Structures are given as C-alpha cells and as structure tokens.
Amino acid sequence: MSKPLLTSLADGVLEITLNRPDQLNAFTVEMHQHLRAAMEDARDNPQIRAIILTGSGRGFCAGQDLSERDPSKKEIVDLKVTLSTNYNPLIRMMRAMEKPIICAVNGVAAGAGANLALACDIVLAADNAKFIQAFSKIGLIPDAGGTYTLTHLLGEARAKALAMTAQPLSAQKAEEWGLIWQCTPADELMDEARKLAKSLASSATLGIGKTKQVIQAASTNSLDQQLDLEAETQGELGRSADFKEGVQAFLEKRPASFTGK
Prior knowledge:
The protein is globular. The chain has a six-stranded mixed sheet with strand order 1-2-3-5-7-10, sandwiched between helices. A hairpin with a 2-residue loop joins strand 1 (5-10) and strand 2 (13-18). The protein folds into two domains: 5-201, 2-enoyl-CoA Hydratase, Chain A, domain 1 (Alpha-Beta Complex), CATH 3.90.226; 205-251, Lyase 2-enoyl-coa Hydratase, Chain  A, domain 2 (Orthogonal Bundle), CATH 1.10.12. Helices cover 46% and strands 16% of the residues. By secondary structure, it is an alpha/beta fold.
C-alpha cells in the first residue's frame, strides 16, 4: 500500500507531495497526520529553508474524503471536531511558519484542497488546474480558512459568488483576479516551483519569514499599528547576521551567502 504522503529534501527545500492519486489526494485522517508531521519538521528543522506542497497524479487535492463522512453510517462525525483537530491547526501552523511555502497546484483543487493551497505563501498553478469551492454542493460553508482567504484576496462580492455557486475558477482567471501568483504551463509547473523554492532557500530567509508575518498582519492592523510593527521588525532584522552579510556583499560587489540568522 502506498504512503499517503511523500517527502524529499534537497538544497534546503522540503518537497511534500499528497499521494492518494486515485482519490484525487482527498484528505483522510491518516493523511492529515502525515502532513502535520511534515510541516512540523519543516518548521523545526533549520536545514529546511523553503517548502513546496504539491499533489501526485492529475489533481492537487479534492478536499475531504467523503467516504469518511458517509451519513448512512450510524456514527455521526462532528465537523466542528474535524476542523478543530485537523484542518485549523494545520492552517494556523502554515501561516505562522517563518519559512516560505510554495504551492504547486497540478490539477483540480476543490473544497478544503483549494483552501489549503491558498493558505500557502506563493501559489503556482498549472494552466489546466481549477479551484472549486465545492462546499455548497453538500450544504456546507467554505472552511480551512476559505471564508477568510477568499474575502481578503478577492473581496466580498467574488468570495460570495464563488462560495455560493461552486463554479470552477480556472488557473488563468485565478491569476487575473490576484488569487494566485502565477499560472504556468502544466509541463513546466514543478520546474518553476523548484527554481523559485531553491532561490528563496538561498536568500535571506530570516527576513523572508518576517516579511511573511508582517504582510499577514496588515489585513487586520491599522496603519499606525503596521508602521510600528515595521519599525520593530526592521530593528530586529537590522541586528541580524543576514543583514550584515547582505550589506557587505553589496559593497564588495559579490553574491551574498545568507545563513538565515
């Protein structure tokens, strides 16, 4: 039996692949456990400086495996418990991690699978990929941060329409609307993702991690709060080894060698 998750580490980049291709990489409890463990390792391992998340086969992730939610079974699954135990801690960890997470959406991203992708920092999608907020088809609301992410990235009007109609959004339209960073030819997707991840991993990752946190804070901060946060964070980074190395390399007209410290 194949593993529900594959990982590989090279050049400071941890590549995580959802690996239930026959089920379009739909989430089971087991896959949640493996993904949480992989993200915890990425968070805690100083050798890991960037992460790529992708899927195997023809889809990225179809969301929750509904075979675990069969209403004909006697046991009723409390979806609040499912979110509080599995999805929400994962999304919070990804958002709090001070390392860049790149999502390479290789096919359909539906339901919680779409919102998992959108929780990443930089999203690349194959030109045949689609994002589907499929929840309304089974009488639910978008979860895994979907109501937050869609509204903040697209505005209320588009967020409501996508959630209520469950209409597929093409990768091209997602790029046009600013929902993702880039739509890429399918056969170039992983090369592009790996090139980007390798570039970020060799950069000043301390500053990149802080950039992630400060930008995320801007959605709820006032201007005064954001200015104060910028000043505080810049003061911290100004005392870092990466800043010293970056300036020295600039003055000496040579490539910088960053350590993430």
